[in-house]
Structures are given as structure tokens and as C-alpha cells.
Amino acid sequence: MINFTHKPILAGEKVVLRPFQDGDFPYIEECLQDPEVIKLTGSTTEYDREYTLNWYETRNEQSNRLDLAIVDNSLGILVGEVVLNLYDEESNSMNFRIWIGPKGRNRGLGSEATRLVLDYAFQNTSLSFITLGVYAFNPRARHVYEKMGFEMESIDERDLEYDGEWIDSINMKLTRERWLSKRTKL
User: Fold this and answer.
1) Separation of alpha carbons 124 and 102, rounded Å
2) I need a surface site. Which of 8, 55, 82, 168 has the fewest CB within 10 A?
3) Rounded to whole angstroms, how far apart are CA atoms 52 and 48?
4) pLDDT tens digit string along 54-66?
5) Are 28 and 56 in contact (CB under 8 A)?
6) Section 85-93 average pLDDT
7) Coil, helix or strand for 32?
8) Axis crossing angle, helix 25-32 with helix 49-57, rounded to the nearest 10
């Protein structure tokens, strides 16, 4: 069983991953209303401020998942989030997701945050593998995931309708063994 009762603080050169704090919500809200975040995460529902505030106020209490704020070291503000969720006991795996808002893009923050959380997961749990889904119109994210060692497992065709077009979702997987071999090269 996975237990994330204790939420870590993971520090890198560019970012710190930490539990959510009072004062983060204005930055979360700005990011979640950003057109690129909406598109790349496949958000299909209208933004509900009260629901979203309540959601983030409970993230630190969740023991079956790990939700962490991505804080840009140079700006000192939240610019995104990383999440490990959907624990599957049978396969001993979890799902990974990340979003980066407009103030954190194109500077390697997402790559570093991804590496930090993957390292933490494989060094502090017994997970066999981590999965994720990425939409086909997000090659930048797919490149980061491949660099970290994720490999394509399957494609969910026509998974998201966006601007009248159907977009495929690419399902990727990173095994503990592949992570170990990639870590020595990164």
C-alpha cells in the first residue's frame, strides 16, 4: 500500500516541489484559467471557483496520492503542480500528471519537476511503474516524458474533442528498471 500522509519538500536548482499553502490559490487560479493549460490538460468543464478552492484545500490531507505545488525558485511563486494518483494495488503502479502555468513555461521547470517527483517516487516507494497520458497535440510534454524514460504503451484514439477535431491520447509507462537505467545517464 502507498501512503503519502507525509508530504515531502523536493528541492531542485530551478524549482521546489512542496505541499500547497495558504496564499497559493491566486496563482493556481491564474494557471487553471490559462488557455494553454485548459487545452493541454483536456479540461472540458467550466471553471468553478468554490469547487476548485475546496479541492486544493484538501490536497495535503490525502494519503493515497501526492499533490505538490511547483514553485519557481527565481520568482518565488507557484507556477504549476505535479501529481501522483490512481494507485493500482494489483500492478503496484500510479499515474503521473503535471501542468505548468504561463509564468513557468519554456525554462525547464517542468522537466526538473518531473525528474524530482519520479526520483522521489522510485526512491521512497516500492512502485513497479508509473503511467501517464499525454494528448497528441502536446509534443513538448511527450519529449520530456521520453527523456525521463517513459515509453509509449498504447493510444486511445479520438479521446478528446478540441476545437471540432478529435485528438488521440498517448499512454506512456515508466518502469522502475527503466528509471534506474535512465537515472545513470541524466
Assistant:
1) 31
2) 55
3) 6
4) 999 999 999 999 9
5) yes
6) 97
7) helix
8) 130
Quote the pLDDT of residue 186.
Answer: 55
* CB proximity list for 101: less than 8 A, separation 6 or greater: 27, 30, 31, 32, 34, 37, 78, 79, 80
CA distances in angstroms from 147 to 50, 133, 167, listed in the order given: 37, 15, 23
Predicted confidence (pLDDT) per residue in 112-139, tens digit: 999 999 999 999 999 999 999 999 999 9
DSSP 109-171: HHHHHHHHHHHHHHHHS--SEEEEEEETT-HHHHHHHHHHT-EEEEEEEEEEEETTEEEEEEE
Q: Please, which residues bridge with residue 170 across strands? A: 134, 155
Query: Residue with C-alpha cell 515508466?
Result: 174
- The upper half-sphere exposure of residue 56, i.e. CA atoms within 13 Å in the direction of its Cβ, equals 23
pTM score, two decimals?
0.94
Q: What is the CATH number of domain 10-183?
A: 3.40.630.30
- Judge contact between 109 and 72, C-beta under 8 A: yes
For residue 13, pLDDT over 90 is answered with yes
pLDDT at 99 over 90: yes
Q: What element of type H or E holds 14?
A: none
Share of the chain above pLDDT 90, in %: 86
Alpha-carbon torsion, ordered 140, 143, 147, 153, to 10 deg: 130
